[in-house]
Design a protein that fits this description.
The protein has 475 residues and is mainly alpha-helical. The chain is built from 17 helices and 7 strands.
């Protein structure tokens, strides 16, 4: 008996899956029939009367088939019951009116034009409800809402990120932008809702999706980290995808206990999460300021001999993306940077866009040679000996979008030459000689740049080591 029920449910699901395909047939065919009918009222279009009868017949048949497939699809439980009920009965009514119109036109009844007018109105209303079920109740006004074309919410800056509510201010807007369309109030694929705390904790038909404190064991994280081509990957490959920063935020939230009432300052903040939090504080259209720093213009492939010369000096040269001729260079394995080594980069000045010199012995004088690499969009100089004098050499790198000067001897005055870099989006100045007053002035000088100076407040955890000393006794 159980196997028979499983088979029947499988057949129902199979037929129901054709509803999104079938439902467009009656919409198109019946609306054509309405147009033909009203045109045929004029003498010169009288010949369309026969075509109207044929269109009405096939529209009626497809409307009935759509009702049957729609009813079977509704049994999956993936959709809001109230919206399904209204859509379902209006669909049945539309099919019934199409049948009535077909028999009236066969009898040349003059009242058929009013019936077909009613049918057109029902098609519009029923179709709108169907669109609301599949695309969300606000699908018609989405283009004018706070959500942009990529499915990301335009976020307002959070003045004090440490006081922000992790779920309400950071996680919930992300779920709304990426997940509510299939797992919200109107539609619940896999019987999973993600729009409220109780539903998130409940999970879907396959069980719980969160294991608090264990992101690696949480089904939500497992699915979003699956390859895009995997059928279990979420969001589906045809939908707007989560960016790396989005995934890191969810991973951090779950690993931190998946709390719904915690503030940012109450959670441990690993180094890799700090730039994301800083981006929230500066605002932007996404969780982190996405760098569009891979040029779209084509570039010739670098000469193999030039790449080989750099590799022989311990410099790693790799493409910045699959099938891209743009390159990234890293000096992490180079013990000593000489002027001759720096000059080896010049033949790649058209292809080289990312340059990693962090934790190296790069000097101010050598930055003059770096300034010749005019295609650079990212420059890493963290924990080097560069000073204000060296930074002056970078004033003509107009394509720069990212500079990391963490742990250098840079001062606020030394950054003046960079004010003309209109494309600069991220500037890291942690552990440098800049005061709070300097920072206020820098924000005015770099209005479109995210300036990260560190200074994150971390909570004291029970696992932290605290040294307790016995007070000295007064003699």
């Amino acid at each position: 008996m159980t196997s028979v029920l499983v088979f029947l449910f499988s057949i129902n699901g199979f037929i129901g899956a054709f509803h999104p395909l079938l439902v467009h047939l009656p919409i198109g065919i019946l609306l054509i029939a309405v147009v033909f009918q009203f045109l045929s009222l004029k003498e010169k279009y009288k010949a369309l009367q026969g075509a109207t009868v044929i269109a009405l017949f096939w529209g009626m048949i497809s409307a009935i088939a759509s009702c049957i497939s729609g009813f079977l699809l509704s049994q999956s439980g993936d959709y809001d019951a109230s919206m399904i009920t209204n859509h379902q009965w209006l669909g049945i009514t539309t099919a019934a009116v199409s049948v009535t119109a077909y028999f009236l036109i066969r009898k040349n009844n003059k009242q058929v034009k009013w019936v077909m007018g009613l049918m057109a109105l029902l098609i519009i209303i029923t179709g709108h409800l169907g669109g609301s079920i599949t695309h969300g109740s606000g699908y018609l006004t989405k283009a004018f809402s706070a959500e942009n074309e990529t499915g990301e919410i335009k976020r307002k800056p959070i003045p004090d990120i440490q006081e922000a509510a992790v779920y309400n201010d950071l996680v919930q807007p992300l779920l709304e932008a990426k997940c509510y369309n299939c797992h919200g109030e109107n539609k619940q694929k896999g019987k999973l809702r993600l729009d409220k705390e109780e539903f998130i904790l409940k999970g879907g038909k396959d069980g719980k999706i969160l294991v608090a404190g264990k992101a690696g064991e949480s089904e939500l994280i497992r699915r979003i980290f699956l390859p895009k081509g995997n059928e279990d990957h979420m969001p589906p490959k045809e939908k707007s995808q989560l960016a790396k920063e989005d995934m890191e935020l969810l991973h951090w939230w779950i690993n931190s206990g998946a709390g719904f009432n915690k503030k940012v300052k109450e959670l441990d903040q690993p180094e890799k999460i700090k730039p994301l939090l800083a981006a929230f504080q500066s605002g932007g259209n996404s969780i982190a300021i996405r760098l569009s720093d891979i040029p779209t213009a084509p570039v010739a492939m670098a000469k193999a001999a030039d790449v080989k010369n750099l590799n022989q000096q311990g410099i790693t040269i790799v493409p910045v993306a699959v099938n891209s001729n743009y390159l990234a260079a890293s000096f992490i394995a180079v013990d000593t940077i000489t002027n001759q080594v720096i000059q080896l980069l010049e033949p790649l000045k058209e292809q080289l866009i990312w340059l990693k010199l962090g934790n190296t012995g790069i000097t101010d004088a050598q930055l003059a040679s770096i300034a010749k690499l005019t295609s650079l969009t990212r420059l890493y100089l963290e924990r080097t000996a560069v000073t204000d004098k060296g930074i002056m050499n970078l004033k003509d790198l107009l394509q720069l979008q990212y500079i990391n000067l963490t742990g250098t001897k840079i001062t606020a005055r030394g950054l003046d030459p960079l004010r003309n870099l209109k494309n600069l989006k991220q500037l890291y100045l942690y552990q440098v000689g800049i005061t709070a007053k300097d920072l206020d002035e820098l924000k005015k000088s770099f209005p479109v740049t995210m300036i990260d100076t560190g200074g994150y407040k971390l909570p004291i955890l029970a696992t932290d080591t605290i040294e307790v000393k016995t007070p000295e006794k007064n003699n």
